[in-house]
Amino acid sequence: LARPPAPAPSLLDVVARAPGAAALIVEALGPEERRALRLEHSSLRDAVDETTKKLTATLRDAPAGDARPPTALRWPRLESLTLAGRLWLASDLDALGRARWERLEELRVDCEWGVPYPSLEGRLIEPDGAEETSSARERALVEAVARMPALRRLRLGRFFSSEEGARLLFGGDILPRLEELSIAAISACAPALAEAWRDMPLLRALHFTSEAGDDQLSPVLTWNLAELPRAVAASGLRLEELTAAFLDDDAGVAALVGAPSFALRSLRLAHWSIGPAGLRTLAAAPWPLRELVLADCYTPGESVSFLDLAHLPGLQRLIVEGCYFT
User: Fold this and answer.
1) How far apart are CA 181 and CA 137, in angstroms?
2) What is the pLDDT of residue 212?
3) What angle do CA 272, 275, 277 make, to 5 degrees?
4) DSSP letter at 38?
5) Is the Cβ–Cβ distance between 164 and 133 less than 8 Å?
6) Is the dihedral of CA 187, 192, 198, 199 positive or negative?
7) What is the dihedral of CA 286, 288, 294, 297, to 10 degrees?
8) How many CB atoms lie within 10 A of CB 83?
9) Cβ-based neighbours of 206, under 8 Å, separated by 6 or more
10) What does DSSP say about strands 291-295 and 266-270: parallel, antiparallel, or unpaired?
11) Residue 218: φ, ψ to 5°
């Protein structure tokens, strides 16, 4: 008896046999289409991974061993990586540093460690690795960052809980190309950052905010250091964007405006105590300021008008919200 003819290969089968063609097709697809294609045809998984440039890696509802952390070998073209979820362990972060991320320009660390989270039934679950020391995770992340030579943008939540870990990251020459730093400033980072500016000569944007998001001014009171604005002003950085919260008063404003190297296009201050003198100083700032945001600032003494700020040459966006007077 003649054997029945083999079924004709599907289009996906044909594409999977030609990696070059697969890469071209996958690169033209959107995120949802890529995800569907990856699930539909396992042979195309590598082609999807190899052409992906932006990835959010989440380890949230399963132990870290049940999901693979991203590696440079698997995602060689990745340019932006976000670490999200609660169950990232030091071993997961170790995986990030097993090879060089030649193209990675942005790293966002939005993880939470050791934080109980609710189950579907409403009870609190202690995440695996909650007992793991923060220093092990900090060292693992620093070693991974050291293998990201193209890194330009770094966003850290409240990641570092020890001065030792912060010094490993900011005290070494592993961020020479960094242009933007966003951090929920915890006190452990203050000494390391105050001495680190010389190791980040290309830094142009500095944001001390909460983990709520880049576009939200909902900062956390963690740096109770009046010297911080002065340290930033004396850093020699050619800053173009600055977001700062809970840091100082009129004297801090004067220090920022007097920074000889600043050329600020965007300034966001939240929860500062700014009086009439501070507002007049801001109105006379020599920067090419296009955006000025004052959020939830306290203005002691006489009532003042913010109209003078509107006359800053070149200003395109002025936001004054939640400020109150005495």
Assistant:
1) 20
2) 38
3) 125
4) H
5) no
6) negative
7) -20
8) 24
9) 180, 181, 232, 237, 239, 241, 242, 243, 244
10) parallel
11) -130, 65
pLDDT score of 26: 64
Four-residue CA torsion sign, 220, 247, 142, 52: positive
Whether the Cβ atoms of residue 187 and residue 221 lie closer than 8 Å to each other: no
- DSSP codes, 58-76: EE-SS-GGGSPPP-TTTST
Q: Taking the mean position of all CA atoms in its chain, how far away is CA 316?
A: 26
**Centroid of chain to Cα 294:** 22
- pLDDT number for residue 308: 73
Provide block-wise average pLDDT over 10 residues at a time, the chain (326 residues): 66 61 64 64 59 77 56 88 81 89 93 54 52 77 94 86 81 88 71 78 83 37 56 88 79 89 93 82 92 83 68 88 70
155 SS3 class: strand
Does the pTM surpass 0.90? The reply is no
Q: What's the CA gap between 131 and 146, in Å, rounded? A: 26
The residue whose two tokens read 């939240």 is: 270
Strand order in the sheet with 180-183: 54-59, 80-85, 106-109, 153-156, 180-183, 205-208, 241-245, 266-270, 291-295, 317-321
CB of 185 closer than 8 Å to CB of 224: no
First-to-final CA distance of the chain: 98
Q: Across the chain, where does the E strand assignment appear?
A: 54-59, 80-85, 106-109, 117-118, 124-125, 153-156, 180-183, 205-208, 241-245, 266-270, 291-295, 298-299, 317-321, 324-325
273-304 burial, b for 16+ CB within 10 Å, e for fewer? Answer: bbbbebbebbbebebebbebbbbbbebeeeeb
What's the token pair of residue 159? Answer: 């990641």
